[in-house]
Every structure is written in structure tokens, then in C-alpha cells.
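Folding problem:
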Amino acid sequence: MMTKQSKDWILGYVYAGLEKYIIEGHMKKLDNIDIDERQFDRTKAIVQSMTKAEREKPEIINPSRKRRIAAGCGQQVEDVNKLLAQFRQMQQMFKQMNSKGKKH
């Protein structure tokens, strides 16, 4: 069973892949979004190869943990690094959105 945190990771990846992000604090309505199912499955495999603690606190993922995660899902360490980078970008984007919303 996937936890809320792992679902958030996968959603973060999907949102990071969208070309059009935010317009004036609202998600722009997009029709016919193409999502690469294979990439989505790879992302899901990476997330599921993480321990609960790693999903909750991705900052604890060091190089040896990245190797274990990659081996556990049949991916390369570079793929794990890309997912972590995309997740960090999503966190930053949501923080920026929240801080802009609080200023008004």
C-alpha cells in the first residue's frame, strides 16, 4: 500500500514534468495532458524501493542508500538522483506559492 508521502512524490514528479506550471497562483487548466506511463511506472518503482523513513525525509538519502534504492527497483543511481532533484524543485515551487499567497 502506498502512503500519502509516496503518492505526493509521484504527483510531484508528474507536476514537475508539466510544461505550464502556475499562472497567478492557480494551476492552469490543461487539456490532453500526455503522461508517459513507462516513466510513471519507473518513478513508482523508485518510490516503492525506499524505506518509509526515506519517503518521509528524503534528505537522509545518502549515496549508499541511493545505490540500494536503484538496485531495488532495477534503475540507475542517476534515475534516483533525477527524481530527488525533481522532488526538491517541487518543494521549492510549493513554498514559493505559499509565501506569495500569504503576502496578500
Q: What stands out?
A: The radius of gyration is 15 Å. Residues 17-26 have pLDDT under 50 and may be disordered. Residues 77-103 form the longest helix (27 residues). Strands lie at 22-23, 26-27.
